[in-house]
Amino acid sequence: MSLLNLTIAGAAQALAAKKFSAVELTTAHNNAIAALNPRLNAYITVTPELALEQAKAADARIAAGTAGPLTGIPLAIKDLFCTAGVRTTAASKILEPFVPPYESTVTRQLLEAGTVCLGKANLDEFAMGSSNITSGYGPVENPWKRNGSDAKLVPGGSSGGSAAAVAARLALGATGTDTGGSIRQPASFTGLAGIKPTYGRCSRYGIVAFASSLDQAGPMARTVEDCAILLGAMSGFDTHDSTSAERAVPDFTAALSRGVKGLRIGIPAEYRMDGMSAEIAALWEKGILLLREQGAEIIDISLPHTKYGLAVYYIVAPAEASSNLARYDGVRFGKRVDGEDLIDMYERTRAAGFGAEVKRRIMIGTYVLSHGYYDAYYLKAQKVRNLILRDFNNAFDKVDAILTPTAPSAAFGLGEKMDDPVTMYLNDVFTVPASLAGVPAMSVPAGLSAEGLPLGLQVIGKHFDEETVFAVSAALERAAGFTALPSVRAE
To answer: Most exposed among 222, 272, 338, 381, judged by the fewest C-beta atoms under 10 Å?
Structure first.
């Protein structure tokens, strides 16, 4: 039995049965990372010694009979989560020397659950991107290949390193963050399950901020069940985060066997967009059929303001980024490039530390917040955002969940869309509306493209109703029977 091909649930059962130790499981992953990460670049920082220490502590918990479902499970942590004593870069050169003195709430909860940190996963710089090509530490390679081609593909973004690590068997699961689709789209591109929970379900404390009203942590794993296990440990109210919701955390795994019989599944007309590929349309129809065959009622719905989602997102998110990234000035932490005076030092530090995409979004955000444009752009975008939220609320008066495609295409080649930011931004067209509304949404692998690449379907639910999202996603997963594996993976 390969220790690298296990699910989290399967590994937990085997650890409990003493079939192998957490140290053995961690060592196998450390060795796999050493062999394959130089090619894939899924991790920015690896922590093999720390991982073994945590694995030994996990074995002690297992021996003492105090282990939980995540004790001894090796994870990749997106390098946007502050980890005490372990470098945290947000994939930006401006944070290259930063070692946090504290732990993010999400990673602290995972550590308390007994997980093992294998390292910090690569991402688009400050989570700004849909391809993982904007990282200051080089692009991540998708472990999947097109049929008959060795061309390098992107893993999606911004959580591309997390996705590549799990798909290539360099971790059993991973944390991600989702601002406009940054968990769901890379999950779709790499054949994984990934959920963006309701905004406020997971604490944002200790997560390097991109757009504070949109950022939300969530898990990525090989199965819907594994995501449910991870989200249970990641969720919960946190007094350190003013946007954290004081809601009880349900047993998400209990919802997996509910099925969909009697559920009303909405199909939004506005997601059938001009130019949608026949493959994506066929996958969507397949998903509708699979749910109908299991007893779900399919209902046509309308989300009329969906068409404004991308425009709203690319005003709101850069505006918040412009404000959040003002703290990187070379004074308190991170990179400093000395200048002739304070202003010159600010300018030199930010010019050297930020990449092109981050600079682009800061400039856009600063522009829409500037005097004379705030009302015309930012305020108007917030009003339309409220209309998008109202569309979802109205829809959920009629349906229990919504089914859409996750992404408009399969993974594309490294460099294929780099010269056209607008084309790149269109990757988020199906995921952004749920982010703007703050509702939970999950991507489930449901099929392969003609070129042999994974394609995902997205399940969207009501606020704080992740349980129904998991129930529908698990039903889709069982019916779709997705078992394909990437060609580049550790054995």
So the answer is: 338
Active site residue 78: yes
Both tokens of 491, joined, read 């054995």
* Pairing assessment for the beta strands 441-448 and 401-405 based on DSSP bridges: unpaired
Instruction: Give the single-character DSSP code of 191.
Output: T
CB–CB of 33/43 below 8 Å?
Answer: yes
What sign does the CA torsion over 154, 235, 80, 432 have? positive
d(CA 92, CA 88) in angstroms, rounded, equals 9
- Report how far apart, in Å, the C-alpha atoms of 160 and of each of 82, 93, 186, 305, 362 are: 18, 18, 6, 29, 22
- Rounded Cα–Cα distance for residues 27 and 482 (Å): 28
User: Of the listed 182, 203, 409, 473, which one is catalytic?
Assistant: 182
Query: In whole angstroms, what is the distance from residue 233 CA to residue 69 CA?
Result: 9
How far does Cα 125 stand from its chain's mean position?
A: 14
The owner of tokens 């600010």 is 346
Phi, psi of 175 (to 5 degrees): -90, 150
Decide if 159 is catalytic: no
Note the residue count of the chain. 491
Give the active site residue among 78, 120, 145, 196: 78
CATH code assigned to 1-491? 3.90.1300.10
What global pTM score does this model have?
0.97
- Looking at 158, 435, 443, 473, which residue is catalytic? 158
Which has the closest alpha carbon to 165: 463, 490, 491, 411?
Answer: 490
Residue-level pLDDT at 298: 98
- Cβ neighbour number for residue 280 with a 10 Å cutoff: 25
Q: For the range 283-287, what are the long-range contacts, defined as Cβ-Cβ under 8 Å and sequence gap of 24 or more?
A: 283/405, 283/446, 283/447, 283/455, 283/457, 284/403, 284/404, 284/405, 284/457, 286/446, 286/447, 286/480, 287/403, 287/446, 287/457, 287/476, 287/480
Q: In this structure, what token pair is assigned to residue 484?
A: 């394909």
Q: What are 150-164's pLDDT values in tens digits? A: 999 999 999 999 999
DSSP result, 212-243: TTT-EEEEEESSHHHHHHHHHHH----TT-TT
Q: Which residue has the tokens 């294929």?
A: 416
User: Residue range 69-86: average pLDDT?
Assistant: 98
List the beta strands (DSSP E) in 122-209.
Answer: 173-178, 193-196
Residue 109, both tokens: 């909860």
Give yes or no for residue 419 having a pLDDT over 90.
no
Give dist(CA 451, CA 429) in Å, integer. 22
pLDDT digits 0-9 by tens, 307-340:
999 999 999 999 999 999 999 999 988 899 999 9
Question: Is 2 annotated as catalytic?
Answer: no
305-339 CB burial, b ≥16 within 10 A, e <16: bbebbbebbbbbbbbbbbbbbeebbbeeebbbbee
Tokens of 296: 């779900």
